[in-house]
Amino acid sequence: MERRAAVLGSPIAHSLSPCLHRAAYRALGLSGWRYDAIECDEAGLAGLMATMGPEWAGLSLTMPLKRAVLPLLDTVADLAVRVGGVNTVVFRDGARHGENTDVHGIVRALTEAGVAAPRSATILGGGATAGSSLAALRELGLREATLVVRDRSRAEETAQVADRLGMALSVRRFDELGAALDADLAISTLPSGAADAYAEAVAVVPAVFDVVYAPWPTRLARAVRDKGGTVVSGFAMLLHQAVRQVELYTGQAPVPVDPVRAAGETELLRRSARTH
Q1: pLDDT digit string, tens, across residues 119-132
Q2: pLDDT tens-digit profile of 136-180?
Q3: Whole-number mean pLDDT of the chain?
């Protein structure tokens, strides 16, 4: 029986996940596995999942499905409960199990860049990735962090994540950004282009993780490099969270990271060349 997995979201055509997962299958010698990108919004999620038979091994979810899927699951890993979002569904023994591999992706991305023990950190933006970033910082040993948002009402969900993780969270607005940049690490969870206006200010932080991976480098990444700082791309997070998903879907570990990384980098170069 062919085994299947897919990434769901809307829009989803741009997703790099099929490239990464298929490269992992090739590296593992899994010829009977298929991975697709499927357009699906919140309204269609329950109906789509109801059609999935025993050939399905797992799903990768983008926002806003990471929260919408929670009521559709039989079990949810403790970490995903604390973060408040599931980006990975594993079909196992007739049940739907929810995991969060984003946290693993962030920890691995920072660690391989040499940012494994920051003493202080500031997160820009209050969306779902901010919650995963907090959990990653907790795994790296931090008990407190600063969150910068447009207005304080946008910090509510991330503050709840901090409470569940046992972390102290200081909240500032972007017009108070300067006071939040005395840190070892800044994590920008802002969408593409949204951090441009703050690039020069944030570049004073010695290490910056920008969750954007295309187009790359971002203005923020260039500003940090120009000042001699360490830059971590969102591609590294995407790579490592995808590798962990493949391990969960297939039961095979470890998945060789290098061929998956090479496939993703090649695809990003191809896309970049096509848009120039």
Answers
A1: 999 999 998 899 99
A2: 999 999 999 999 999 998 899 999 999 999 999 999 999 999 999
A3: 96
| E strand segments, the chain | 3-9, 33-39, 56-61, 75-76, 88-92, 95-99, 121-124, 144-149, 168-173, 185-188, 207-210, 230-233
The backbone torsions φ and ψ at residue 85, rounded to the nearest 5 degrees and listed phi first, read: -160, 140
Q: What pLDDT is stored for residue 64 in this prediction?
A: 85
66 among known catalytic residues: yes
pLDDT value, residue 1: 87
Catalytic hit among 3, 4, 66, 240: 66
Mean pLDDT on 231-246: 98
Global pTM value: 0.96
Start-to-end CA span in the chain (Å)? 42
The answer for 79, left when phi > 0, alpha when psi is -120 to 50, beta otherwise, is alpha
| Distance, CA of 217 to CA of 29 (rounded, Å) | 33
Mean pLDDT across the stretch 71-75?
98
- Could you count the other beta carbons within 10 Å of the beta carbon of residue 153? 8
Residue type for position 184 = D
Sheet holding 185-188, edge to edge: 168-173, 144-149, 121-124, 185-188, 207-210, 230-233
Contact of 202 with 208, CB cutoff 8 Å: yes
Contacts 24+ apart (CB under 8 A), 161-166: 161/82, 161/83, 161/84, 161/130, 161/131, 161/134, 161/135, 162/134, 164/81, 164/82, 164/84, 165/82, 165/134, 165/135, 165/138, 166/138
- Tallying the residues shown for the chain, one arrives at 276
